[in-house]
Amino acid sequence: MNEDDIATLRARDFWGALVLIGVSLFFLVRTFDIPLWGGNRAGVSGADWYNSAAIVPLGIFSAMLVLSVVLLIISVRAGGATRALSAVGIGWDRQEAIRFTTIGIILFFYIAGLVPRVDFIAGSGLLITALTFGFHRGLPRRMILAASAVALCGAYALIAHLPQAEWAAHDDDVVTLLAWATLTGLMLWRARDDRVLRVCPAIAVIAPTLLVCAMAFGFRQNVPNRGGIIFTQIEYHYYVTLRPIWRS
Amino acid sequence: MEFVLSQLTGFGGAFVALVTDPLTYAYLLVSVFLGITFGALPGLTATLAVTILTGFFGNKIPLDYSLIALLGAYVGAIYGGSYPSILLNIPGTAASAATAMDGYPLAKAGRGGEALGLTTTASFIGTLIGTIALLVFVWVLLLLSQNIASPEKALLALFGILLSGTLMSEDLVVKGWIAGLIGLAMAMVGLDPLLSEPRYTFGWSYMLSGFQVVPVLMGAFAIPQIIDGMRHMDVGKVAALKGRILPNLRTVRRHLPTITRSGVIGTGVGALPGVGEDVAGWVSYGVGKTVSNESDTFGKGSLDGLLCSETANNACIGGALIPLLVLGIPGSPPAAALMGAFKLNNIIPGPTIDPEIILRVVAIMVLASVTMFIMGIFTARIFIKILQIPQVVFLPIVMVLTTIGSFSVGGGINDLYLMLGVGFVAYFLNMLKFPIAPLVIGVILGGLFDETFRRSLLISGGDLMVFASRPVAGILLLLNLILISSQLPFIRRGFRRLRGRV
C-alpha cells in the first residue's frame, strides 16, 4: 500500500471506528436486559453473576468498545479524521460508487424479491445475464441498465406478492421472463462480436436449470419456489413422463 | 508398537474400502477438478470452493462421499492457485501469493512447464507430509486432549481467535481482533447454551436458533468475493507454457531437502489454530530465503523459492485438520468451512470424535493428493485454457450456486437474507481491511467459548483462578496474555530497542 492508500484507509477507519463504537454501546445497553444479578426466567434461577447469560456478551462488547476506541485513536493520530471530514472523503470515485451500488441492487432484489417469489430458473437466468452483460466491459450505462432490469422484476415481485401465501403466483414469473428476454436480445444486438456475451444466453439457461434439477431430483432437496412457471413443468414431466420409463 | 499397528491396520481398512468403491473416483475426479478450477481462477479461493461444496454436498450425500468431495476440492484448490501465480503473476489464492515471486519469472524465462511440473510434485509431497503428520499427531494429541476440560477449551478457543486475528491482519492487528470479536458477538445471538436465555433476538423467532454456520460461511466468503470479483474482470495475458510438465526426477531429488523442510513448516503453521495456507506459504518462503544457498536468486526465478511456498501451502492442509479433528478448532479458513460440513452431519470434531472418521479423512487425503498429482501432470493444459475465461462468466454462476446451496441447507428464505446481510457486512469489513477469517472462526468457536467459559466459572463457583491454577490452562492463559501484550505499543517499542542493541 502506498501512502495515499494508507491515508484513505485511515479515513475509512475513522468512520468504521465510530460505527463500531455505536454498535458496541448499543449492544452493551441491550446486554443489561439479560438478567445479570440473580434474575429468574422460566423457572430457572440465575442466582450468581458467573451463571448469567450476559457475562460473556458483556466481555465481548466491552472489549469491542475498547478496541474500537483504540482504532479511532490510531486513525485520528494518522490524520484520518481530518481527511474523513474533508472533501477528499473515503476514496470512492463515481465509477466505484456506481459499480458497487448496481451490484448491491442486483444482489438485493435477486435474494429478497426474485428467489422466494419467482421461478428459480427465470430469476437466476436474469441474474446471470444482468451480471455478465452489465459488468463485462465495465461500462456504467450497461451496469445501470442491468441493475434496473433486476430491480424492476424484484420490486414487482415484492410489491405484488409480499406475503408468503402469494409466492406461487405466476405474473411475476412472466414479468421476469420478459425482462430476461429483452435484456438478452439487447445484449446480443449490442455485442454481436463479443465471444463472452455470445455464450452468455446459453450459460444463463443451462446453469440454473442443471443446478435446480440436480438439487431437486439428484439430491432430493427443497429448491426455492417449487411452484415456479418453468420448474412446475420440469417437475411434472420428470415424475409423469420420464421417471415411469426407468421405473417400469 | 501394538497401537501403531492397530492404527495402520485401521488406515489400511479405510483405504481399501475407499479404493474399491467406484463412486470414490467419481467424487474425487469431479471435486479435485472443481478445486483446481476454483484455485486457478483469480478471485475464487479454496475457502470459497469448500464453502460452496459444503452447501451443495454437506448433508445431502453420505458423510464419506461428502468428505471426499470437500477434501478433494480443498487439496485441488490450494494447488490450483499456483497456475495463475506462475502464468499470470496473479495469485489464484492468497496461499499462492509467494509462489508468484519466483513462478512468473520462471515462466517468462520459458521454464513455465518445468515450474508447473515441480509445483505439482511439491504440492503432492507436501500434502502427503501433512497427511502423515495428521495420522501421527492426531492420535498423540487425542490422547493428551482427554485431560483438557472446560477452562482449557475456553482459553484455546480464545487463543485461536486471537492468533488468527493477529496473523491474518493485512493492516492493523487491532482490526483482526475486532473481526474476531464481531464473530464472537454473532455467536451470542439466539438461546444461550446453558440456561436457554434468549439473547439479541429482537423478538424474531428465526433468530432463536442463532446464526447458522453455512449461511454465515457463504455470506462471509462468497458474497464479498463476488462483489469484489465483478470489479476486476479482465484476465491479464497468460504467459506461454513452454517446456515439458513431467518433472525431472533428478531435479526433484536435488530439491528434496527444501521440499521436506517446507512440508514440515507448512504442517506446523497449519496446526496453529486459525492460521491458514497463505501464512504457511510466506513463513516457508521466508525461512527458505534465510537458509538457502541460493538466497540471492529468490524473487528472480528460483526453483527453491517456488518449492518453499508451494510445498508449505499444501502441507498446511493436513496440519490445519489436526486442531480441527482434535480440538474442534479449525486450523485455517477452508478447515472452518469443513467444520460446517461436520456440523451439518451432526459430528462434533474434538476429543469425542469417532476415530474411524479420522482414519477415513487420512485415506481420503492420500487419494486426493494422488488424484491432484495425476490431474496436474496430465491435464495442466485444460486448466490453462480455463484460466483464460473471464471471471464475469464464472461469478454469476457462483452466486446462483451459493444461493441454492445456502437455501437447501437451511431450507428457508431466512437463511438467504442472513447470507446476504453477512455478505454486505463482510464486504465493507474487507474494504476497511478487516480480515474475515477471524470473524468466521469467532462465529464457529463462539458457542464453545461461551459454554466452556461459563461452565468453568460455574464449577469453580465464580473463582477466576480456575483459568490459571490448572497447568495446561495456566500455559494457555500465559500464551493469550503474551499474544495480547506483544501488540501493546510500549512493549513493541521495547522489543525494537532490544533488537537494535543485539
TrEMBL record, chain A:
Top-level taxonomic group: Bacteria
Residues annotated as transmembrane: 12-29, 49-76, 97-114, 120-136, 143-162, 174-189, 196-219
Keywords assigned: Membrane, Transmembrane, Transmembrane helix
Name used for this protein in its record: Tripartite tricarboxylate transporter TctB family protein
TrEMBL record, chain B:
Full protein name: Tripartite tricarboxylate transporter permease
Keywords recorded for this protein, A-Z: Membrane, Transmembrane, Transmembrane helix
Cited Pfam families: TctA (PF01970)
Keyword tRNA processing among UniProt keywords: no
Entry keyword Transmembrane: yes
Domain DUF112: 27-441
Gene source species: Yoonia rhodophyticola
InterPro entries in the record: DUF112_TM
Entry's transmembrane regions: 26-53, 65-83, 124-144, 172-191, 203-223, 357-383, 389-409, 416-449, 469-491
